[in-house]
Amino acid sequence: MSDFKPPLPLRAETPSGWAAAALADPEALLSDHAHNEKKAALNALNLSLSFSDAPRGSVLLARLAEEELNHYRRVLEALQGFGWTLRPDRGNAYAKALHKQASKGLLDRLLIAALIEARSCERLWMLERAEASHAALGSAGWLAFLLELERCEAGHALGYRSLAEERFRTEATSRLDWWLDREAEVIQSLPWRSAVH
Ligand SMILES: [Fe+2]
Ligand SMILES: [Fe+2]
């Protein structure tokens, strides 16, 4: 993991055995990821309502929502391509545990979104390496898609952090420091499953 630089300074590195555990059921992994991409698109659209007075913010969030919707469609197409079906949404205990600790409205919503993107980025990076040797998911096209996702989610993490800093200034910096500890606690407390988190 040493050559990976997450877009935010995450404080708990995912153990190297995680990717193999996540790949135990690739159909479940991809299904869960499809649901997450859809939720990310909806979240960006919802957050854009808070930036109607800030053109840079509303454009950034509209573009972000568009990218997540594009990811959603392409993960659905990947499921179809592998001959798999979209399984029911099992929910995301990681995101729920973060939101449960939120108390500062828009600032926390932006910082949680930034953290989720940064953690996704780290884990997509790990999957990309593990999947190179995976029977079903080792194709060049699929790996290129994962790399594209990883880079895109890194940009989203930085975008959300910049929106928080522009709107909330120094409060955003100290709150992010607080959230980095909470995120590390949450990610380490959850059992591994066939999902990005
Ligand atoms: Fe995405
Ligand atoms: Fe994203």
UniProtKB/TrEMBL annotation:
Cited Pfam families: MiaE (PF06175)
InterPro entries: Ferritin-like, Ferritin-like_SF, tRNA-Hydrxlase_MiaE
Domain of life where this protein originates: Bacteria
SUPFAM superfamilies documented for this protein: Ferritin-like (SSF47240)
UniProt-recorded name of the protein: tRNA-hydroxylase
Organism: Geothrix limicola
